[in-house]
Structure formats: C-alpha cells, structure tokens
Amino acid sequence: MAFKSGFITIIGRPNVGKSTLLNLLTGEKIAIISDKPQTTRHTIRTILTSEEYQMVFVDTPGIHKPKNKLGEYMVQEAFGTFDGVDLILFMVDARDTKIGPGDSRIIGELKKAGVPAILLINKIDMVEKTSILSLIAQYSDAYDFEEIIPISALDSSTKDLILNTIQKVLPEGEMYYPEDMLTDQQEKVLAQELIREKLLNLLSDEVPHGIGVEVIRFKERDDKGIIEIDANIYCERESHKGIVIGREGRILKRVGTLARQDMERLFGSKVFLQLWVKVKDDWRNSDFMLNELGYKKE
Asked: Do 260 and 250 form a contact (C-beta atoms < 8 A)?
C-alpha cells in the first residue's frame, strides 16, 4: 500500500470538542481542554506517523463573533488554515437542531476553499439517535462532504473510525516531519498553554478569557536535568488578580502544581515553575500585548 501524508485542519464553533478529538487521535495531550468556549487561541500542529501514513493535524480556535482584537486574530487564524491543507475536519454539535449562523459561515468558507471535507457530528452520546438523522440531512443538502460521521470524541473507538476515513481521503506523499516528532510547537508555547488550561478549569466564568500567559524564561539545566520556567499571568482588572491568586494564594499554587505535573509528563524532565500575576488593562485590544503573547497580527 502506498504511503499517504497530508495536513488536516480541524474547524468548528467554540466548545464542539476539537481539542478533545485532537488529543484522542494523537494519543497525546497537546491541545488544552476546557469546558469553556474559545479555549484554543493558537493553531496547534500535532503529527501522527505510522508505517502507512503521516497525518499533520491543525487544531484551530473556535469560530465566533469577535469582541476584541484577540477574537479577530483567532477567527482569522482559524480560516487561514484552509490554505494549503489536504483535508478539513468540520465538527458540529449533535445537540443542534439546525444549522446555525456560525456553521453556515464555515460552510461558506468551505465552498470558497474547495478542499475535501469530512463532517463530524460530535456529542452523539447526549442526544436521541433520531435527532441526528435530521442534522445529517440538513448538512448533506448544504455541502458535498466526503463523509458524514456521527461520533463521540470521548469514545476511544472513535479514533480508528476517523483515522481510517482520513487515510482513504489523503493523497499519496512523503513524510513532512521526522517520524518521532509529535508537534511543531515550541516547548515554551506548550508551557504557556498548559498554564492557561489550568486557569480556565479552576476559575469562574467571567475571568478566564481576560487572561493571557507569557513564559518569560525557559531554561534547561543540563547539569541537573531540570527545566526552569518563569511565567507572567496577565489579567485585565485588579479584581481579577485577586481571584487568580485566590485566598492565601491557593488558586495560583494549584495552577502551578497541575501545570508542572503536565509539563513534566510532556517534556520528560523535572520542572521548576514560578508564576506571577500582573494587571494589563484591556490587553486583548493591545497590538503590542497580542504580539508579546505570540498572537501575531498579519
């Protein structure tokens, strides 16, 4: 059988399960997961290599109506991945009864891109099977998908089903990355994202989206096998700073412990992590701050 390879972007509205799916398919925790929408801010490339294929998955920020420059960047970043990919995985929520405006917008972009697309209807474990048939019919009428697959990204059997379908659609080609490479993300970015994931999971709803994380020091101590990481956590209000730190520093300490444990698993090394919390008013509308935190504006 000929070797196949290609770039696959995962697109969808916020909180449809894109990062959960990415981690399931690759078997590694690269994308951060939270029950809050707009969790992913960067496009994250994760590489899955076997004897038969190399799949380069691109996880994207959720498509939403932007409220600030960060939001505009995220949507631009997501649609920008359509250029140069070989396949698009479009995820929707099985609990929807019809195609909403956000998903209609994505279908419009799919038509412009002309790239093969597979529709994944996620969270089927939360609905009656009969309701899924109506969604399948609506999406079949709206766009000519290669396949429409109802799934649960939490079900491990989903993995082989999707990978086999992708393999059929991908073109023949060579490897783009070394076979043992897992992601093209710098370790510094992965560290930032892991810290932000813990903040998203531990904080109340109004705070997390006003938070940015910047790793200001990432030093590998070869003599001791330790990675030293210092990071600033930026929030937009003084009142949020207290929430992030928590009573007697408990929240910040918990964030640091959980993030450090994940980093040690991911990097295969002991990690010494220090966190500071700083206030930057309205940083999500600051070109300078967006640039500093790695959200580059074209």
From this structure: no
Q: Which domain holds residue 253?
A: 187-292
| Pairwise CA distance, residues 192 & 231, whole Å | 8
* Residues whose CB is less than 8 angstroms from the CB of residue 199 and which lie 6 or more positions away in sequence, other chains included: 208, 211, 213, 233, 244, 255
CATH of the domain at 260: 3.30.300.20
Summarised one tens digit per residue, pLDDT across range 214-272 is 888 888 877 678 999 999 998 888 888 888 898 899 999 999 999 999 899 888 889 99
Residue that is last in its domain, among 136, 169, 202: 169
180 within a domain of the structure (yes/no): no
- Pair 204, 162 in one domain: no
Which element (helix H / strand E) includes 256? helix 250-267
CATH of the domain at 44: 3.40.50.300
- Digit-coded pLDDT (tens) for 65-101: 545 555 555 556 655 666 678 999 999 999 999 999 9
Vertex 113 angle, CA 138 and 61, to 5°: 80
- Looking at the domain assignment, is residue 297 inside a domain? no
24: Cβ–Cβ under 8 A, 6 or more apart, which residues? 153, 154, 156, 158, 159
Instruction: Please give the C-alpha separations between residue 247 and each of 97, 164, 235, 239, 262, in angstroms, as whole numbers.
Output: 43, 49, 17, 13, 24
Cα–Cα distance between 22 and 30 in angstroms, integer? 8
Residue 33 · residue 20 · CB < 8 Å:
yes
Give the count of beta carbons closer than 10 Å to the beta carbon of residue 71. Answer: 18
For residues 111 and 140, state if they share a domain.
Answer: yes
